[in-house]
Amino acid sequence: MAALELDGISRHFGDTTAVSDISLSTEANEFLVLLGPSGCGKTTLLRMIAGLLEPSAGRILVDGDDVTTRPPRDRDLAMVFQNYALYPHLTVEKNLGFGLGVRHMPKKSIGRRVSEVADLLDLGPLLRRRPKELSGGQRQRVALGRAMVREPRAFLMDEPLSNLDAKLRASTRTELISLHRRLDTTFVYVTHDQIDAMTMATRVAVLNAGRVEQYGTPVEIYDEPATAFVAGFMGSPPMNLIPAELCSDDGQLAVRAPGVDLVLPMIGDESEKRAVLLGIRPEHLVPVSANHPGPTLRGRVDIVENLGSEEVADCLLGETRISVRGPRPIGLTSGQSTTLAVDPERIHLFSAQSGRRLTWQSESVPALAL
Hints:
single chain, alpha+beta, Rossmann fold, CATH 2.40.50.140, 2 domains, six-stranded mixed β-sheet, five-stranded antiparallel β-sheet, 20 strands, about 25% helix, about 35% strand
């Protein structure tokens, strides 16, 4: 359906900048997730796309059509709110057809369209009920159905699963994935939940303080985070970020910190020690014997958490706390000293000053410019 383009979008509230110079574009029929912590600007950005807020600068294009100054009703975009915004005195059937009635669509056409959407969302048995008689998941489907009957160019969703319990959230997430495939239209979805982003999105924009930290597929963002913020936001537990120094060791690059002495399989000459953040995901650390020959970290186990099929161990490297995740039993006990092996290919380095990911000009020489 709709391809979306944001060109230099900003929004100011007095002296406060909520969204700053965001530019991104999607292909038609993508599932775009705007992901970030509370206050990062993701809902403000969604409301500007919907036309509920006017940008302070920039343009919004839908299928190449500039809709920046158009009112919401003329954008052909459907919004699904966090609190569902259902009319409590109307039945599910009336809620579904309300928007079409406002547009003076013939009653027969409204009935046909409501019936089609009700069948698609399994709402048929609920058509005579009112919102207070529905569960949270059922209300969410009604809110989505009310948007669907309009057949909009794109769906805009503001944390529609946040009010659901964990089990219902998981099942509704699966329903949304299936629905997106069946409708073959564009979804723009706001959430602070990384599981929503990883499971549903075709592309993710990670926001922080009103700016896009990284824009890419879920796999790109998880496997190759562009900044230390993204690395520390994605994952459960998130990536371990260890303050360290990058230096040379007989012509090879080495990373050193309390409990860390890693010689990397890369040739380089760091004439001066360089402050970095060493990034390693918890699932890429493996407990090994003390005489393990490969790259290792050494520390002390503090707490081991049982998660059922997995365990997570919190360990201390000097004063830095890191997490280790693996199948249960992980083989670690509180209070013991431990040696943790890491595959050099799984190591990430970030600038301690800018937080940007360190990249390499070739397989052997690290770039000094970020």
